[in-house]
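TICKET: design request
STATUS: open
ATTACHED STRUCTURE:
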């Protein structure tokens, strides 16, 4: 195994446990036989062992560390990692649906696995982990005996690793629209064509959190995707629920999910651009007891963080103007590059411009099957906020 050495001024981030090593943090590599995707041993300039990771000179993250120990990286290594991740989720009470594996937070960078009961959806987002895909599939087969495994690697970040975008079966083919249970409700998940892996497991706990504020309420949800928040609201006692999304396919799935739960008389979903209609409805002085906003990530680039913050401010300002005095705003951000304090500050500025006084009811992050490791900022990405909204 090729040995690579860190620069003399080793970044304390690496010593503190961060698994990413950028190209400019390494001394020049002279091994002409070293191939992209190969494993390398990493050492400090004074030849102290740091760990073993996979190497890719095409990526800005040149080495991603797999272990800080002298150990063999083989099929059994991946089996142990996935088994440990499953045992951890079981301790937290997960049985059917969960993010089984969350990349760096579970010590295998760039690996995502979502468990939908007996079906699994996998993403391998770096070359090094992609080469171990057969070992990962073998581990899933051995631990779970699944009904099916599907690959959702149709994601642009793979191109930064020199990898193609692709999706398909990693097991025998199976129907890719599956049904799952959550909080006493059922939802269809399209793991072949839906966003990300087909269903947003990271909001499981947050969907439950709206229960006390939606009872007997008139509710509007924007960026509904397949209607999970809205259908929860109806299930928890809302008198009427209106949901909007710009995607016609998502709206069709949302209406299908409402019917699946016999809530189609309460939930109504329609195709609309939230930025446009919320502004118009505010001018028309429409009012709702609860407004729910769950937009997609507004940026993947640090260069556009301010634009993302402007977007969050605008959509939340428009949402607040539609809330009845004393009603509630439920709002989220999944933009990794927007930190919690930036998000909270942005909501406060939106309230100021909307001439509203807000009172925090709840602020939390993603469901705990998506573990957060302090110091690994990409593991803490979701911000979920409920505020009471009052006129000044």
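STATUS: resolved
RESOLUTION: sequence designed for all positions
ATTACHED SEQUENCE:
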């Amino acid at each position: 195994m090729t040995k690579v050495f860190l620069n003399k001024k080793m970044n304390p981030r690496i010593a503190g446990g961060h698994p990413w090593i950028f190209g400019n943090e390494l001394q020049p590599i002279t091994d002409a036989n070293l191939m992209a995707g190969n494993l390398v041993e990493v050492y400090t300039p004074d030849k102290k062992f740091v760990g073993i990771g996979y190497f890719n000179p095409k990526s800005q993250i040149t080495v991603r560390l797999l272990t800080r120990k002298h150990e063999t990286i083989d099929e059994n290594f991946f089996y142990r990692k996935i088994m440990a991740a499953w045992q951890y989720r079981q301790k937290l009470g997960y049985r059917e649906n969960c993010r089984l594996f969350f990349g760096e937070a579970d010590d295998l960078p760039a690996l995502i696995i979502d468990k939908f009961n007996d079906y699994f959806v996998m993403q391998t987002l770096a070359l090094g982990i992609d080469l171990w895909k057969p070992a990962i599939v073998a581990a899933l087969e051995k631990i779970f005996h699944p009904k099916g495994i599907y690959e959702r690697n149709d994601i642009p970040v793979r191109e930064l690793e020199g990898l193609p975008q692709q999706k398909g079966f990693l097991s025998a083919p199976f129907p890719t629209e599956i049904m799952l249970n959550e909080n006493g409700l059922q939802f269809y998940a399209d793991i072949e064509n839906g966003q990300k892996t087909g269903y947003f497991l990271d909001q499981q706990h947050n969907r439950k959190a709206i229960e006390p504020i939606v009872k007997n309420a008139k509710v509007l949800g924007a960026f509904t995707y397949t209607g999970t928040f809205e259908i929860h609201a109806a299930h928890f006692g809302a008198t009427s629920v209106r949901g909007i999304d710009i995607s016609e396919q998502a709206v069709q799935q949302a209406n299908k999910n409402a019917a699946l739960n016999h809530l189609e008389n309460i939930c109504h979903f329609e195709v609309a651009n939230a930025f446009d209609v919320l502004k118009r409805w505010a001018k028309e002085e429409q009012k709702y007891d609860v407004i729910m906003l769950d937009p997609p990530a507004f940026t993947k680039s640090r260069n556009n963080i301010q634009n993302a913050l402007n977007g969050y401010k605008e959509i939340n300002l428009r949402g607040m103007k539609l809330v009845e005095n004393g009603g509630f705003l439920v709002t989220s951000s999944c933009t990794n590059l927007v930190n919690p304090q930036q998000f909270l500050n942005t909501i406060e500025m939106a309230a100021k411009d909307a001439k509203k006084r807000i009172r925090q009811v709840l602020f939390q992050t993603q469901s705990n099957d998506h573990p957060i490791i302090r110091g690994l900022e990409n593991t803490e990405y979701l911000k979920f906020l409920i505020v009471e909204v009052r006129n000044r």
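CLOSING REMARK: The radius of gyration is 23 Å. The first strand starts at residue 2 and ends at 5.
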